[in-house]
Automatic annotation (TrEMBL), chain B:
Domain of life: Bacteria
CDD domains assigned: TlpA_like_family
Places the protein is found: Cell envelope
Protein name as it appears in the record: Thiol-disulfide oxidoreductase ResA
Length: 539, 173
């Protein structure tokens, strides 16, 4: 591709609008314009100028700001769609997702599920959208940042007349005692912290150029942030799992490779007490019935000693006791355990008495561990109870057969066989909560419910996030970029002697009022005319 | 100049493409599947069966192991257990071992189930640690382990008897 050689002798890349060096307008159709478009210094940033290979086509697609904006808009719409119904990971585990959405939300829910919106944020197309935004940011920044840097670095002090008179702030003054005038202007500009460059008696005063890099610093921050998001998928960087531990139970902590165990001693739920609260809170307690004050799990952390094969009973060494409360996690190595949920009064043991139906005479108690029932319970004196079947989470299936829905004793039911001295072949009784069925005969004996022992279960989130510092760094750099671009302005003032006249022009990337005030104060007391705002003139 | 531009652009696009491809790949090979990688060594474990015998996976090297995770309340598990038992009888002599790992149930429940279906292969109960090491999600989940202790397949659904037969053929030493 041809380079464009300006009359000042500078070689510009193809597609340059304004000469990088002297600022002369190089594109014919722009020569009629009253004012210049100063974005990106008129540099050849639009690589649409090259459109030869497939690589160039892909590059130009992502370089386009228009494409970038559309990608963001589409991503925003998609993100919003994902919040209409809950995502799959948040639905209660009562039924499969394929049924849940239709059951809860009707045909809309069915559609939502069919379109895959129930797993929207980890769907391939959503990830591709986010990735495209990242690519667009990188390529668009490279395509604009580098030429802008080049232009600002190469810019000459003596700018072309056509460049100066097409600036928004421009004035022509009669030359008189210009040397003296220039000296005084220079002094004042220096006092305002402008950097002054001189060439053939012409002046370029510039300040705050670094604010032009703000958007690019900002984009670097965004890219680091996206990389942080990407790191979550790298094994070992991010863990988010849930651990249910019953009181008295010791369980392996997930994602520790069997290295750590946790014992739950007690789960505590405290509520605010009306008597001990201030009057104004008492009303709220009355209103709500119960206001939680504290959720706490008293636990012990253990580490396994020596090498153990999975499944082998490990040798545990106590690390420490701790109380996990909301926002007070138990931290060890890179992991943290947070209090996240609980279940009160889960059934643990049930006690029955074998008794005579007529006389209610009792022949002994038996206590069944619902997690480890025994085959038979001998009550002595020839009285014995056998468990024929046990359904921890009992319901009747479609054939009216008793089945269990899970291994958790949410609704235990038993088939007992009761042996007594006068009924040596035994009587069968089906016992569920609030329900007794005698399938064969009218029994003489029954199992009467005596007591139940419950335990609380705590749920802890096992969390590890090694990507946080990357996200924080990205966010910090992002903010530096924002500040850099917003709180500083890039201001330039040109003074050039043209045929016995002094031409003065000013440009800033924002805050024109500030630039006008700067100019007004530096030319105060000289015979230079204050530059007029050519944007006002047009109207 | 033109060539340099093309090279730079190609390199940048390839780098970005690789990053995106990796992210997508990592996202879809979920955590659990990564725990037990296909074509890699199966994590070793040792569990005790209902007769009190210890079964260590590494002791079965030289034989194919049909490793099945199950629960008594799981309907498809219940359905495939008798099929597994039939095929176990066929393939036992040919060097295929069946290990059925029950997920944290009581001895009572497992014993009742075993005697109801007359199961011959060893059944072991895991308190949750092996399940965690293998990243078990839905039940039943079956791993096919070959004679070198390498995981060949991970199967996450109920199986017909013909399927079980085919899988046992695959791991026959």
């Amino acid at each position: 591709m041809k380079e464009v050689i300006c009359e000042c002798g500078h070689h510009n890349p193809h597609g340059t609008v304004l000469c990088e060096s002297c600022g002369k307008v190089l594109i014919e159709k722009d020569k009629d314009k009253k004012l210049l478009d100063m974005r990106y210094e008129g540099s050849a940033r639009r690589s649409q100028t090259y459109n030869k290979t497939i690589i160039d086509k892909i590059w130009n697609f992502f370089s386009s700001v228009k494409v970038g904006v559309w990608l963001i808009v589409i991503t925003l719409i998609a993100s919003a769609l994902g919040t209409i119904f809950p995502q799959e990971m948040y639905i209660p585990p009562v039924m499969p997702a394929s049924e849940y959405y239709e059951d809860q939300y009707g045909w809309l829910g069915q559609l939502y599920y069919t379109l895959g919106f129930h797993n929207l944020y980890s769907s391939w197309w959503y990830l591709l959208l986010i990735a495209s935004i990242g690519i667009s940011i990188i390529i668009a920044s490279l395509d604009r940042g580098i030429p802008l840097y080049r232009s600002l670095k190469t810019q000459r002090v003596t700018r072309h007349e056509g460049f100066l008179k097409r600036q928004r702030l421009f004035s022509v003054s009669e030359a008189g005692s210009e040397d003296q005038t220039f000296e005084s202007v220079k002094e004042k500009l220096k006092a305002k912290r402008y950097r002054i460059r001189e060439e053939d008696g012409n002046i370029l005063a510039e300040k705050g150029r670094f604010s032009r890099w703000g958007p690019y610093v900002n984009h670097v921050g965004l890219i680091i942030f996206l990389i942080g998001g990407m790191l979550r998928f790298v094994p070992g960087m991010y863990v988010d799992e849930i651990l249910w531990v019953r009181e008295g139970e010791t369980k392996v902590i997930p994602e520790t490779d069997g290295q750590y165990y946790l014992e739950n001693h007690e789960f505590i739920l405290e509520t605010y007490d009306k008597e001990n609260s201030k009057e104004e809170f008492a009303a709220a307690i009355d209103d709500k019935g119960m206001v939680a004050k504290n959720f706490q799990s008293d636990v012990t952390l253990y580490k396994t000693k020596g090498e153990t094969v999975h499944g082998e009973t490990p040798q545990l060494e106590k690390v420490r006791d701790d109380s996990i409360r909301v926002n007070h996690p138990l931290k060890f190595e890179d992991l943290a355990l947070y209090q996240v949920d609980y279940k009160l009064d889960e059934l643990n043991q049930m006690t029955f008495a074998l008794s005579n139906k007529e006389t209610n005479e009792e022949y002994g108690d038996l206590t069944i561990d619902l997690y480890d029932p025994k085959d038979t319970y001998d009550l002595g004196n020839g009285y014995q109870v056998e468990i024929v079947s046990y359904f921890p989470d009992f319901e009747f299936d479609e054939n009216s057969e008793p089945i269990t829905k899970s291994r958790i004793p949410n609704n235990p039911a038993f088939v007992f066989k009761m042996f007594t001295p006068d009924k040596p072949e035994g009587e069968v009784s089906f016992v569920a909560i609030q329900q007794t069925i005698e399938p064969f005969t009218d029994n003489e004996y029954k199992m009467s419910f005596k007591a139940v022992e419950t335990k609380d279960v705590t749920a802890l989130t096992v969390r590890k996030d090694l990507t946080l510092w990357v996200l924080a760094l990205g966010g910090f750099i992002f903010m530096i970029g924002v500040a850099q671009g917003s709180y500083w302005n890039h201001r330039r003032i040109w003074l050039r002697k043209v045929d016995g006249e002094v031409w003065m022009a000013g440009h800033t990337n924002k805050n024109w009022h500030g630039l006008k005030r700067d100019i007004a104060s530096v030319i105060d007391g000289t015979d230079l005319n204050e530059p007029a705002d050519q944007l006002d003139k047009k109207e | 100049m033109k060539k340099k531009r093309l090279v730079i652009r190609t390199v940048i696009l390839l780098l970005l493409g690789a990053a995106v491809a990796y992210t997508l790949y990592a996202n879809f090979s979920s955590d659990d599947i990564r725990k037990v990688a296909i074509n890699e060594k199966a994590p070793d474990f040792v569990l005790t069966d209902m007769e009190g015998n210890k079964h260590q996976l590494s002791d079965y090297e030289g034989q194919g192991v049909f490793l099945n995770f199950w629960g008594t309340w799981c309907k498809p598990c219940e359905k495939e257990m008798p099929y597994m038992n039939n095929q176990y009888k066929q393939f036992k002599e040919q060097g295929v071992q069946v290990l059925a790992v029950n997920i944290n149930e009581s001895d009572f429940a497992v014993n009742k189930f075993t005697s109801r279906y007359n199961l011959d292969f060893p059944i072991v109960i895991d308190k949750g640690e092996v399940m965690e090491a293998y990243g078990i999600g839905p039940l039943p989940t079956t791993f096919l382990v070959d004679k070198d202790g390498i995981v060949i397949k991970r199967l996450e659904s109920g199986m017909t008897e013909a399927m079980i037969k085919g899988y046992m053929e695959e791991i026959k030493p």
